Amino acid sequence: MLKLMYITNRADVAIAAENAGVDRIFVDFEYIGKDERQHGMNTVKNHHVPADVRAIRNVISRSELLVRVNPIHDASDLFSSSEEEIDAAIENGADIIMLPFFKSAEEVRRCIRSIDGRAKFIPLLETPEAVDAVDEILALDGIDEIHIGINDLSLGYHRKFMFELLIDGTVEKLCNKFSEKGIPYGFGGIASLGHGLVPAEYIIARHYQLGSSLAILSRSFCNIQDYTDLNEIRIVFQNGIKDIRRFEKECQMHVDRKDELYFSNNLDNLQKAIAHVLQQGAVNK
Hints:
Elements: E1 3-7, H1 11-20, E2 24-28, H2 34-37, H3 50-57, E3 64-68, H4 82-91, E4 96-99, H5 105-115, E5 120-125, H6 128-132, H7 134-138, E6 146-148, H8 150-156, H9 170-181, E7 185-190, H10 200-209, E8 214-217, H11 230-256, H12 260-280
Parallel strand pairs: 1-2, 1-8, 2-3, 3-4, 4-5, 5-6, 6-7, 7-8
């Protein structure tokens, strides 16, 4: 099954997510440079802080706690250094550190040195420069898993819609490299079944076709801004995770049977859905 991750700094929502079977609660420090590169886009922009990590650590027991730090940076008048930020995340209870928007193996190496074995490490590969340096990056010791951030990567490649990377060979080539190295990997986010600009079923089946084992639950899976009642949020998580897990069993069955036709048909459906979105023009906004 996919390891499912959900971004929140709310303790009550974290408990609801954990109880529903979410594998990782995701606290998000990243804000440096994000507004500039995603200006005007309806994307998730957080600015969580170390106290949020501690608050979530205090209420979860089964789910892992992942913290996405800022891109590698030195200290300035505006913010502390990457090393200080990583220390704060780990000291407050992070099990996993995720590094976004790196462009070189040296940035990844600097993060590995800073973590120093105190937490798991997941690079978030989301720049064309990182794709170009992927072999050097994968040769480093200290990478536990790797995730492809298809939103920023699609912007870097000047694509109109992030899911184009799932059908143009970009994600597939990277997944093959990760698989050859024996590093668990994932990509992008998924909505609840039957929802999303592209139906979540097509995306999940593509995960299974490409051997992915990680996925972020997107904001549309449970946008807590849409609810005032915590019990409604609990129900959304319980039903949504149950539906995803049920569909995953179907995908796994086709993997076990080596049913290439099933995944070929899914890829056709995915391509058609993406083409429809591009025709409608509802992309990267």
